[in-house]
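Quick illustration, no need to memorize.
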Amino acid sequence: MVAPSPLFSKNRSTGMNKASRWIPLTLILFLALSLASGTLACNLLPTTPTPSQPPAEEPVAPSSPIPQGTPPNLLLPAPGSNPAPALPSIAAVVEKASPSVVAVHTETVSRDVFLQPVPQEGAGSGVIIDPSGIILTNNHVVEGAQSIKVTLADGRTFPVISTRRDPQTDLAIVRIQGQNLPAARLGDSTKLRVGDWVVAIGNALALEGGPTVTAGIVSYLGRTIDTSGSSQLYDLIQTDAAINPGNSGGPLLNMAGEVVGINTAIAGTAQNIGFSISITPALNVIQSLVTVGQVVRPWLGVGLLTVTPAVASYYELSVTEGVLITFVERNSPAEKAGIGVGDIIVSLNGQKTGTADLLRKAVQSRKVGEIASITLLRDKAERTLSVTLGQSPQSP
């Protein structure tokens, strides 16, 4: 709740004596300059004249024949072109977007060994998306909190008056009583490319004095990671912009200062690997949380793993394409239909589902209560089962 959950969390230097390194380098430099100017000969060689001799002919190395053929068609830079464009202005991005970034402070109450209530504080981030006081953050930032306060960039603090959460996407909406607040502009995360510059702003480590700014690039797009229990997060932006505890819920920005992601997780056993929820696929979730209060989506109730040649070899599968069922939730539509762990789903309603992402999107395109026909492989035999899609359970 305080920070992005670690999902997967000395440099040595060799010394050298400065004098022993510096003296040879200065001596070499002196010798080179002296040889070039002729002063070394004047200072070190005897001044007695010597009889002139004809210069000895230096041997000339035989030249290699130039290979025959068409010369390469080199793409040389055009006159006046700049092959190395200037870096984008990160300062301009920060100036534009930082007023909409907020710090989220939470308080929960737990019990000690004597069953006495013990208050615990947490910290995260958020971004204002509506001037009336609608703030987007992570579900895990506010989940289980008894009280929540929001501190704006200008130092004002507001109590949160309502909270709406979607654990499946790790998104949440909190409201404060405000007006004419500086709302951020949402961008189009589908236009991002690997290598694009991005900026992360958030309440890192809950440091006093204002939000922390880090910058990096898009390292990968469309990443899927496992979170706690059996849940997964999809369509994530992987970035090397530093994301630290307290950054959760804060924005990932493009160079136009637009929100393209919500920072949500870090790899606890690695460096410079962070993940943000892509904003464009999340728009429907955000709209549902604001207008309805929850997200109603069809539900199958299984864990999915895309079958690749490597996966097929590891699990000794008979096929190299499809979606492997890794677990089945109790009393889920999948369990009621007879789907089991180890089954490989190959299609839904005749639509080929070669990857877990395709199957997930095929399920999400249906309606709650709809009967879907699922074709799967079990013990190398093909079977077709009918599944009545349920409604995704909501956490309290």
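Residues 298-391 form a domain with the Pdz3 Domain fold (CATH 2.30.42.10).
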